[in-house]
């Protein structure tokens, strides 16, 4: 069945059990007011501040549900609007390359046309989302941030570099072979252990080799999501 407004089931609830397996339909914010004194006038100025607790489009897995339950208990979150569909609108950024210019001479007049150079598509079909290389990576980032907020994990980092094979140089210092490195999507600590995660949709031959080198060189088994 195709997702549409007619088949969407959308509601607001404070019951975590009714949230499991659903998508966050509306961004959940923690709002408060802070007072500041204007140095020039001496008047007190009130400014409304907002903190994003749940991003729209986040899938509510068991881990996310634990975090939501924690935020409800501590009082920072009262209810969540959820949906059975991930029907979030996305703002498309203009990430095209510099425009090229084509000039055609017609009689004694010049017709000028400016057209953007299109950006090369990801060869594996993944679409960027929220500054991440894929929707899957974006969704996992939201989950991990919520888990860190709830104290389930700590020291969350993104795009952590691991050197697998150092750069090779001759006796004169000239570069012979470039460094071979692996960039982990997410690294965090839990239960006294360091976890290295990768959210690639397609496991290429290059990635599989780097996965083996991570275990051989650093003794780290990559957790694949």
Structure description:
The model is unreliable at 90-119 (pLDDT under 50). The protein is an alpha+beta fold. The longest helix is centred in the middle third of the chain and has 15 residues, at 135-149. The radius of gyration is 24 Å and the shape is extended. 15% of the residues are buried. It has three helices and 13 strands, in the order ββββαβββαβββββαβ. 19% of the residues lie in helices and 36% in strands. Strands 8-11-12-13 form a four-stranded mixed sheet. Strands 1-5-2 form a three-stranded antiparallel sheet, with no helix packed on it. Helix 1 runs parallel beside helix 2 (135-149). The protein has helices spanning 62-74, 135-149, 205-218, and strands spanning 10-13, 23-24, 28-37, 44-54, 80-83, 100-106, 109-115, 154-165, 168-169, 175-177, 180-190, 193-198, 223-224. A hairpin with a 6-residue loop joins strand 3 (28-37) and strand 4.
What's the number of helices?
A: 3
The geometry reads as: extended
Strand order of the largest sheet: 8-11-12-13
Q: Percent helix among the residues?
A: 10-25%
The oligomeric state of the chains shown is single chain
Q: How many beta-strand runs? A: 13
In whole angstroms, the N-to-C terminal distance is 26 Å
The computed structural class is alpha+beta
Tell me the major beta sheet.
4 strands, mixed
Share in β-strands: 35-45%
Following the backbone from N to C, one meets helices and strands in this order, namely EEEEHEEEHEEEEEHE
Query: What integer is the average pLDDT?
Result: 80
Radius of gyration: 24 Å
Uncertain residue segments: 90-119
């Amino acid at each position: 069945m195709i997702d549409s407004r007619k088949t969407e089931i959308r509601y607001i609830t404070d019951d975590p059990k009714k949230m499991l397996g659903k998508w966050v339909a509306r961004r959940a914010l923690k709002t408060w007011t802070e007072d500041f004194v204007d140095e020039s006038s001496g008047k007190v100025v009130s400014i409304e501040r907002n903190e994003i607790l749940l991003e729209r489009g986040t899938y509510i897995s068991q881990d996310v549900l634990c975090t939501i339950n924690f935020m409800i208990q501590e009082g920072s979150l009262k209810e969540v609007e959820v949906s059975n569909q991930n029907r979030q609108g996305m703002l498309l950024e203009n990430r095209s390359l510099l425009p090229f210019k084509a000039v055609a001479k017609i009689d004694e007049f010049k017709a000028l046309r400016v057209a953007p150079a299109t950006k090369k598509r990801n060869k594996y079909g993944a679409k960027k989302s929220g500054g991440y290389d894929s929707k899957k990576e974006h969704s996992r980032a939201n989950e991990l941030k919520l888990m860190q907020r709830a104290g389930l994990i700590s020291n969350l980092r993104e795009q952590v570099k691991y050197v697998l094979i150092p750069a090779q140089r001759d006796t004169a210092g000239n570069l012979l072979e470039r460094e071979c490195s692996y960039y982990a999507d997410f690294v965090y600590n839990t239960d006294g252990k360091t976890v290295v995660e990768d959210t690639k949709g397609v496991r290429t031959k290059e990635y599989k080799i780097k996965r083996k080198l991570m275990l051989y060189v650093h003794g780290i088994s990559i957790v694949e999501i």
